[in-house]
Amino acid sequence: MSLNHDITTLTDIELLVDTFYAKVQKDELIGSIFNDKIGDNWPEHLEKMYRFWQTILLNEHTYSGSPFPPHKQLPVEKAHFDRWIDIFTETADLLFAGPIVEEAKFRAKNMATMFHHKIDYFRNAAKHNTNH
């Protein structure tokens, strides 16, 4: 039985996001992809992620924008998304327990699946267009 509480505040989201991305930055498979793309803009990226998850999980509408476009050109494959999900799930389970954290893991998995399929779609469309 976990003694952890559920995600209920912005402080909880900040802890989840900060802990998750600290692990991502050091990860052998996906760390360099994030670090190369984000560079010195980690504070801005983390702030955007706080607002994104606050909007989704706490229904406090602080995020606006479209999350997919910045990911469209990333050099990623299914293995990268699988690793991202593994780290997210492991971090969420380490820090929290309850229905909102379960929703976070569900949403993260769905997002990773959708992003992977959309990236594949755009790559295939680009290949198709260059072959004609």
TrEMBL record:
<keyword id="KW-0349">Heme</keyword>
<protein>
    <submittedName>
        <fullName>Hemoglobin</fullName>
    </submittedName>
</protein>
<dbReference type="GO" id="GO:0020037">
    <property type="term" value="F:heme binding"/>
</dbReference>
<dbReference type="InterPro" id="IPR012292">
    <property type="entry name" value="Globin/Proto"/>
</dbReference>
<dbReference type="InterPro" id="IPR009050">
    <property type="entry name" value="Globin-like_sf"/>
</dbReference>
<dbReference type="Pfam" id="PF01152">
    <property type="entry name" value="Bac_globin"/>
</dbReference>
<keyword id="KW-0408">Iron</keyword>
<dbReference type="GO" id="GO:0019825">
    <property type="term" value="F:oxygen binding"/>
</dbReference>
<dbReference type="InterPro" id="IPR001486">
    <property type="entry name" value="Hemoglobin_trunc"/>
</dbReference>
<keyword id="KW-0813">Transport</keyword>
<keyword id="KW-0479">Metal-binding</keyword>
<dbReference type="GO" id="GO:0046872">
    <property type="term" value="F:metal ion binding"/>
</dbReference>
